[in-house]
Design a protein that fits this description.
- This protein is α/β, with parallel strands linked by helices.
- Helices cover 48% and strands 14% of the residues.
- The strands form two sheets. Strands 4-3-8-7-5-6 form a six-stranded parallel beta sheet, with helices on both faces. A two-stranded antiparallel ribbon has the order 1-2.
Length: 261
């Protein structure tokens, strides 16, 4: 796997480990500064070919309890953000608080603006056919001057990897955003870090669907107060089985977090 390098700010606190899963305690501003450093270092030719960014929520943490490869993938990433108020809450209970929630959807938009400003090229991979194209158009509206050099639905199946990597290589992308859902998207990136012909790769979950208007994000007040999960359950009641991970997450954090170290 690709070498893990430290792109965190020099004054950043040490990561918090929530049930053994690493989370970097950074603000959105600090995350963007780290992303800029990764990209500028790559442009200068001073680091390995690709670095992975992961945005962690409670479902990720619970999945990582059973999937050791997924946990390893998260813990070895270049940057891990707290995507989910449950993660923010858990870090406070552990007395190593993260300063704020840093979501994948918001980070994607800010990353697009950074790329437009500094001249980096984006490749959008995943989601249903046609969705990435619409999402790319929306990103270009939000980040004028942004270069979207390729979109492709594809799949995370190993037999498709060579074709997808060749598409990304031909497009000469600097940044690859992958929307296959977790953990598939993150494990796809992890498997291919050594071969990915880009500087930065990030799993973005449903962000393409949000940007394309196929799904609605929760109102801002619900996101701010940590109730986005409730809105998603209302909009997508079939998710109730996945939501069972949330009370289990709370129970596990309280039980294990209250133990003396």
């Amino acid at each position: 796997m690709a070498q893990m390098l430290n792109f965190l700010p020099s004054n950043a606190p040490s990561p918090v480990y929530v049930l053994g899963v690493r989370v970097d305690r950074l603000t959105q501003r600090q995350v963007l500064a780290a992303l800029r450093q990764i990209l500028s270092s790559a442009r200068a030719g001073s680091r390995p070919p690709c670095q992975q960014i992961i945005t962690v929520n409670p479902e990720f943490v619970m999945a990582a309890q059973k999937n050791t490869l997924f946990r390893q993938c998260i813990n070895q990433a270049a940057l891990v953000t707290a995507d989910g108020m449950g993660i923010v809450w858990a870090s406070r209970l552990l007395r190593q608080p993260t300063p704020e929630r840093v979501t994948g959807a918001d980070t994607l938009v800010e990353l697009a603006r950074l790329a437009a400003e500094d001249g980096y090229r984006l490749y959008l991979l995943g989601a249903a056919p046609g969705v990435a194209e619409i999402a790319g158009t929306r990103l270009q509206e939000l980040a004028p001057g942004l270069k979207i050099v390729g979109t492709y639905a594809g799949s995370p199946a190993p037999e498709e990897e060579n074709e997808i990597l060749e598409r990304i290589r031909t497009a000469q992308a600097d940044i690859v955003c992958v929307a296959y859902g977790a953990p598939a998207q993150d494990l796809w990136i992890y498997r291919n870090l050594q071969r990915l012909p880009a500087s930065l790769a990030m799993g973005v979950g449903g962000a393409f669907d949000f940007l394309a208007g196929r799904q609605r994000r929760a109102p801002h007040w619900m996101r701010r107060t940590g109730l986005e999960w409730l809105y998603r359950l209302y909009r997508e009641p079939w998710r109730w089985r996945r939501m069972l991970a949330l009370p289990l997450f709370v129970f596990q954090v309280i039980r294990k977090g209250s133990r003396p170290s």
